[in-house]
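User: Quick one: structure for sequence A, then sequence B.

Assistant: Sequence A:
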Amino acid sequence: MRRRFFLSLALLLTGIASVSAAEVGTVFANNCAACHGADGSANTPQGRKLKAKDLRASKLTDAEIERQIREGSKSKSGATAMPAFGRDLTDAQIQEAIRTVKSFRPTEPK
């Protein structure tokens, strides 16, 4: 319990998390949160440096998110903006990451 408290505190102080790690998918936490943040805001030191996208504002379809995860993306200058994870993640892990990315979007009023 104490260890979890200090881990959560450390993540909050470094800007990496504003939600608990248990609330973020494992695949996302292990592969994406360093840049996109545990809350998807990209408000992390690495995210700001690389100009990572705020996933809370993403309007990409599932297919577009999947392509981005599998193939990565390049900046306008041709440099790698996001690495490809297609060889590192299973199909199930990619689907988990897609669900996590979409979970950051604000819920639409009914």
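Sequence B:
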Amino acid sequence: MDSRNPSSAPLPATAVSSLARAHEALAEAALATEPAARYAAAHVAALRVTAALLAVRTRPAPRRRQRNAWTLLAQVAPELEEWAVFFAAGAAKRAAAEAGLSRAVSTREADDLLRDSGRFLDLVERMLGLPPQQVLSQLALPPARAS
């Protein structure tokens, strides 16, 4: 039995699909030339990673009040609460970026979010007992900028 995926059962198809889509969104972010597009794609990748984890850790329940993915993440994976707070804080910037506000995010913010989303994906995949994909090393990420 694997301590990271205690059931050692195969992942639900929705989780596998969400992880694949997260990888695609990170690749899209890495290729984006505009910071707003990079930021938005990186944030979407984090949402897809969250969807994968929720697919594994939650069961469908009768329709109740809709909750945001970041709130759900913090509830079902308390060890990821800091990540949930971090990504929730970036949701408004993502919305502004998707709305076409080119100055909504800086190049540094977009690059940092891309790296952070890749780290989040790596962490969740390890938690699910998957072999490391080393997402960050596979993407042509710009080097971290000094503060």
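Helices lie at 13-31, 35-57, 69-76, 81-89, 91-98, 107-127, 135-138. The chain has one domain: 13-58+69-138.

User: Thanks, that's what I needed.
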